[in-house]
Amino acid sequence: MTVPPTPPSVMTAQQVRDAEKAAMRTVSESTLMARAADAVAAECESLLAQRLGRTWGAHVVVLAGSGNNGGDALLAGARLHYRGAQTTAVLVGSTAHKMGRGECEAAGARVIEASSGEDSAALEAIGRADLVIDGIVGVGAKPGLRAPADALVAAIPASAAVVAVDLPSGLDVDSGSADAPHVHADVTVTFTAPKPCLVEQPAAASAGRVVVAQVGVPRR
Predict the structure, then answer these.
(1) What DSSP designation does 140 have?
(2) Which among 29, 72, 130, 169 is placed 20 to 30 Å from 96, CA to CA?
């Protein structure tokens, strides 16, 4: 009889931060982010294949915050653009991850700095999206969505697939609470181990299918 693999143990936000700090003593942050972006891009391509039968010509929107999750999302968006998708990166933070933005621009993706939730170019791109990558916030953020992210997330059409990077933005990473405004994902690509919000209800219902990608950070 085949014994199913043991699922990875849940890790809290602090445990993840500690593990990443330890990993970066021997592996560069850019390498970890490249591996994360590869995993996100692969799931995006799989979803696009299921829904459209192709990546080429698909409209992809990246909602990117200032942190590393935003960087992972931008890098994944650049990869999809290189593979034929029409990627628009919507920057929703006060700054943008330098490496992620640079790769998007080098790939030829469109980059929009959304200063408000009423940015017409951002709303137009979101309204046409076949797939949205949520890289707004990461494990260190407080629950809820703040401007302009809240209005931009509300504009995501029901027909678009949503892939969250690490966790759906707006959830409380360390609990099952889903009271605050947050992203509802079809797939969540998380790294190293599931977080409490991805396995505890009602929050887990907003994560969709959870994919745990190993990027070189040791589990506890």
Answers:
(1) T
(2) 130
Structure tokens at 210: 């959870």
- Residue 27: both structure tokens together: 């592996």
Confidence (pTM): 0.93
Q: How many residues does the chain have?
A: 220
pLDDT digits (tens, 9 = 90+) for 101-159: 999 999 999 999 998 778 899 999 999 999 999 999 988 888 999 999 999 999 999 99
What type of residue sits at position 166? D
* Per-residue pLDDT at 220: 58
Per-residue exposure over 126-160, b if at least 16 CB sit within 10 Å of its own CB, e if not: beebbbbbbbbbbbebebbbeebbbbbbebbeeeb
Max Cα–Cα distance, the chain, nearest Å:
57
Are 38 and 108 in contact by the 8 Å Cβ rule? The answer is no
Question: What is the set of domains in the chain, with CATH numbers?
Answer: 28-213 (3.40.50.10260)
- Contacting residues for 194 by C-beta, under 8 A, at least 6 apart: 7, 8, 10, 11, 210, 212
Per-residue exposure over 25-53, b if at least 16 CB sit within 10 Å of its own CB, e if not? eeeeeeebbbbbbebbbebbbebbeeeee
